[in-house]
Design brief:
This protein is 62% helix and 0% strand. With 332 residues, the chain is mainly alpha-helical.
Length: 332
């Protein structure tokens, strides 16, 4: 028998349902999620920069990674698109997560995740962090420095890599540290791809200090094309992301071959997306900078062949492009 939520929880569940419908391009007034909403969520995996559940992994592992993706996607859809009180809907989601940990979730995405949590013995903490990142999105719309942005990524991105390692049964302190680099890099890449969209929603994920240093004001983020000053900022952040994604090679090298390929593919997708940003001369407003499949494969091959003895670069690596620099020749 399915439990009926209390009135506040019921309203939050309805709000979550409307968020799912909005993501699918539909309107809905139903209290429960539509039958095809979960399928719509999982289908979005095809639009990511990286393969969410690589075909080289065993079927059961792929299924568990898709369950994790469904939760992460649902959380972001609520945080970005839910009408009404998003904070209340995120509270509802956290309650559903707690119920999933006990095998008592009611939402289909959380019921599927519940099976994965039980089978893999997963901690709920990284899932809670993803919800907290979306709560932060409701309160914070600007980040002063790159270090501040990295702090946000510790909630919004790094938990995903930690969950993936736990699903694979390969979590160690060293791997978690390398995974955090990769996940932060992937988040920065996504921010670069979505500069215009985010600005339209009143959010800026480019460090304000970097924008000021290049003489770039916020109105430039909503223009049809990127100004030279904005392109310099994009080039700076792209270089930072590229350095972080290089941690994918030493991370992958510690894993058995199937998992090595799958984990390296995450970083390869991010690097290929950065190639697309660079190919557009860092104009992320006028161009849809998405990775080409052939380039992802090429990046994957390079990562798998990369020697891993080089020291890691700190997350807060210094900027390499001065204000007078011309974007277009980023390091690879």
């Amino acid at each position: 028998m399915t439990a009926i939520p209390s009135a506040p929880a019921h309203a939050a569940a309805a709000s979550a349902s409307r968020a799912l419908d909005a993501a699918a391009g539909r309107g809905s007034t139903a209290a429960g999620a539509p039958a095809d909403a979960p399928a719509t969520i999982y289908a979005q995996a095809a639009d990511e920069n990286f393969p969410v559940a690589s075909w080289v992994l065993p079927r059961a592992v792929r299924a568990d990674l898709m369950a994790v993706y469904g939760f992460a996607r649902l959380t972001d859809d609520i945080g970005d698109e839910s009408p009404g009180d998003r904070a209340a809907t995120l509270d509802w989601l956290e309650g559903e997560l707690e119920r999933a940990g006990r095998g008592a979730a009611t939402h289909p995405v959380l019921r599927r995740l519940s099976t994965t949590i039980a089978a893999r013995g997963l901690s709920l903490e990284p899932f809670r962090d993803l919800i907290e990142a979306n709560r932060q999105d409701q309160r914070v719309s600007r980040y002063e420095t790159f270090e501040d942005l990295v702090g946000y990524c510790r909630l919004s991105a790094n938990p995903v890599g930690r969950i993936v390692l736990a699903v694979l049964g390969r979590s160690t302190p060293e791997r978690v540290s390398l995974s955090d680099d990769v996940c932060t890099g992937l988040q920065v890449v996504e921010h670069l791809q979505d500069v215009g969209e985010d600005a339209g929603q009143g959010r800026i994920y480019l460090p304000l200090a970097d924008l000021r240093a290049e003489g770039c004001d916020e109105t430039a983020l909503r223009a049809p094309g990127a100004s030279p000053a904005l392109r310099r900022v994009i080039a700076t952040e792209a270089a930072r992301a590229r350095r972080l994604l290089r941690s994918g090679a030493p991370l992958a090298a510690t894993l058995p071959w199937r998992e090595r390929v799958a984990v390296a593919a995450f970083a390869a997708g991010g690097l290929a997306a950065l190639d697309a940003v660079e190919a557009a001369n860092f104009d992320v407003l006028a161009h849809r900078c998405r990775p080409r499949p052939a380039n992802v494969l090429a990046r994957l091959a390079l990562l798998l062949a990369t020697p891993t003895s080089a020291p890691r670069t700190p997350t807060s690596a210094p900027r390499t492009l001065g204000r007078s620099s011309t974007p277009g020749g980023g390091s690879r």
